[in-house]
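User: Hi! Is it possible to get a structure for several chains at once, not just one? Here's what I have:
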Amino acid sequence: MLLDGINTIRACHHKEGHPHHHPHGTDQPVETHTHGGREIKVVRRVLDANDIMATVNRKLFAEKKLFVLNLMSSPGSGKTTTLEKTLQHLMPDYRCAVIVGDICTTQDADRLAASGAPVVQINTDEFGGDCHLAAHVIEKALGGLDLDNLDVLIVENIGNLVCPAEFDIGEDKRAVILSVTEGEDKPLKYPLMFRECDAALLNKIDLLPYLDYDVRLAADNILQIHPDMPVFETSAKTEEGFTPWLDWFKTAVKEKLG
Amino acid sequence: MHEMGVAMQIVEIATASIPADLIGARVEKVNLKVGKLSAIVADSLQFCFEAVSRDTALEGARLNIMEIPVRAVCNACQNEWTIDLPAFTCPQCQSGDITLLSGRELDIESIELAEEDN
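Assistant: Yes, the chains can be modeled jointly so their relative placement is included. Here is the combined structure:
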């Protein structure tokens, strides 16, 4: 009986690729029986509440025909610059908006607003200084956007290679940015992030002449964690290597919107 | 880094799991399954749990964490193995087309209630 319970939960887990969580519904125990009147079976995911909210978000994004990218990275890897340049290339074809998460300040939002895309800033200190954006925080931020007149929503998550990977927000795709000023071993140190994402960017390659950085090793380490993942070597500053990244992005958008 | 939020969820779920007819029941142990791929630090979780469980039915309860290994199955050759190193290719046929069977758990399995005094 216990094993059955575990298997049920497992079936609901994201096995590979994208999580498609099913709400487990109520606050009542899934299965209750007692051992000597003392042990009560619960068998529930601790992050159930987030998964349920992510499912609500995902349904809304489907209804509104909105493609959502969850963009994650380490701090200072060039996420905002990458986003600015990506928006420049997407905006002629798609109506884009951005949700920006930061613990403090509105600097990223100010920079991104220059693109002309609607930007909603979330400062997580209002939500307890969180290290990630949770599904209910995204749901709140959606209220500031006209979803009927949008095709693409990019969520710039908190700069952090640990926690954001754990929280489904209802997105269609996840991408992670790492820069060549960080160690080649980072993917091995943060396996969950690289396992959970659909694409990786190795950014700031314009700096390679000044660094002892082994791009091949870094890419191999990413592939060791996620063998089939596309790895794009980019410079958001010079836009070198941007075409394959933009092609991947546009293909993903077309897959959803047709 | 989000252990506080996780601890709060544990208290909420565990509290809701105490049968309504057991008035004044106290939880002495929470049995958790935590996959090795989860971004959870056991010591931090215990620390946060002690803070957020104060004045609840879980005050003083112990978190019993069962660590779950990362298991995978290769979709090419059906080989099943435990991933100990951060390498997600099949050791038998080198295929990268694998499915994770376990390791992402962050589940409450059960709660154990303290014996009543009477």
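Confidence is low (pLDDT under 50) at residues 1-36 of chain A. Chain A touches chain B at residues 9-10, 13-16, 27-29, 32, 37-49, 128, 130-132, 134, 160, 162-163, 165-167, 187-188, 191-192, 195, 223-228 (CB under 8 Å).

User: Great, thank you!
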